[in-house]
Design brief:
By secondary structure, the protein is α+β, with helices and mostly antiparallel strands. Helices cover 42% and strands 24% of the residues.
């Protein structure tokens, strides 16, 4: 449907919760170059290799470190994307094996570190995974202890965490404003 609309002159954009690498892989698969919103709305780009039209990373070390420690204490793996699309993975091999194939590919292509405290300087998006119970506990923890962060359970295994107030709708509103 996206390809058909694009070929027929409709202004299109890809909007996804995936990180920059995942979004670019999807766009390459469609063989079109359109603007895209990725990282659960935390980044808007003009197209493949294009300029960043908007980026809303969070740099809240105290709150981020609290969340990282919570995840470690509760055996929840951390997957973070930095502004430069580099990926940070912190978790067991068993947790890594549970990742969906597209996310595994993103981690392999962009992997830079396993140390969550040093590497989470400016994450654009942080995903955690575990059981649904652990994810619900993480949401409660974030809402109580990390008011600058915004948690959204995006599937039965993933928790997207962005800067408070940033989501896909925010990214789309920004793109619409940029396009006039």
């Amino acid at each position: 449907a996206i390809l058909y609309a694009h070929q027929n002159g409709v202004e299109t954009a890809i909007i996804t919760g995936r990180g920059q690498l995942g979004a670019e892989l999807a766009i390459q698969h469609l063989n079109i170059d359109v603007p895209y919103i990725c990282s659960a709305g935390a980044m808007v780009r003009s197209g493949l290799g294009g300029e960043v039209l908007g980026s809303w990373p969070f740099h809240i070390p105290l709150q981020t470190n609290k969340l990282i420690q919570f995840a470690i204490d509760n055996d929840i793996a951390l997957l973070g994307e930095q502004v430069d699309a580099k990926m940070i993975w912190h978790g067991s091999e068993q947790r890594y094996d549970l990742l969906d194939p597209k996310t595994k590919d993103e981690v392999k292509q962009g992997f830079v570190s396993k140390d969550p405290f040093i590497s989470y300087d400016r994450p654009l998006l942080k995903l955690t995974l575990g059981t649904e119970t652990k994810l619900h506990q993480a949401v409660s923890f974030i809402l109580q202890e990390c008011p600058g962060l915004f948690p959204v359970i995006s599937s039965h295994m993933y928790l997207d965490t962005t800067k408070a107030g940033v989501d896909k709708g925010h990214g789309l509103a920004h793109l619409a404003k940029m396009r006039g």
